[in-house]
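User: What would this chain look like folded?
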Amino acid sequence: MKCITIEPEGPVINFDSIKFYGAVINAWAHLFPDELDFLISEIKEGKVQFSSPLPYIDGTLYLPSPRVSFREAKKFVGEGKDAKRYEKIDHVKKLKKTAYLPAEYVQELEGDVFPSFLMERIYKEEQFPTPKAHHDVRPHVQINRFDGSSTIFYLEDEISYGVSEKEGKHLRPVHLKILYRGERERELDAALKFIEDRGISKKMSWGLGKVKLRRGTMKNEILPKIEGFHYLLSKYIPKDDEKKSIDVHGSRMDIGYLTGYRGDGEPIPQIHYIKEGSLLKSDRKLIGEVIDEGDWTLSGTGFFLGDMYEN
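Assistant: Here's the prediction, encoded as structure tokens.
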């Protein structure tokens, strides 16, 4: 599997597949304006696909926690009122809230069920660091244009995922990996260099979003398939015909929505998407919608692991 490694060189505000598509399309428009329509057509056809950034910690790839059933939790917790049982209940609650799991754990899921033996194993090991977002408060200065006076104020930003082995310790940033499918490596390398030089945030002038980007391959990593489902590693906006093919009752999914503003300041209408970690049942290949309004483009192309997708 091809991948892009992201090495933060400073605070990086959290971003997802939709924002990364936007960064690549913007870079492409600057570098290869005559080929922009070709890139967008490749994305629409599912020939170019990006996952959301995935934490990579000490040689372990973390994947979005699949939306699975915890119906075997009773078997794991057991009966009685001893302290160990309550510890296990807290452990299950923690697992349900975990945003990411090591790929090897995802590999051991039994379809859409989190098996009790895996709960027990994680409970005994209790050693994998959980990536989580943290917040960074940064000072800013506002200058009054009329009298020249200055005011110091502080803004809080959600910084990209980091890990901490001890509670309360400042999180250290982690490398991220974006999985991708597609060709045109020469152009992609140029686009990544453009993003690297500019930063991956609108607040790059504030020192946010400075990263190093390297293209490579995942050689020995486990990229699991969850039997019977399309396992989603990105945000996904289904096309109308894809919506009809998805078994809503058999799928396990979370829905979110996004809003925002175009480059000219005009608002983007509310758009619903399916979140990372969702498990979709469909008998066809799912690609996703690309909203192309001419002066702005938004890609909701999904990146799935499943029987219809080559690893």
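The chain has a mean pLDDT of 82. If you want, I can go into more detail on any region.
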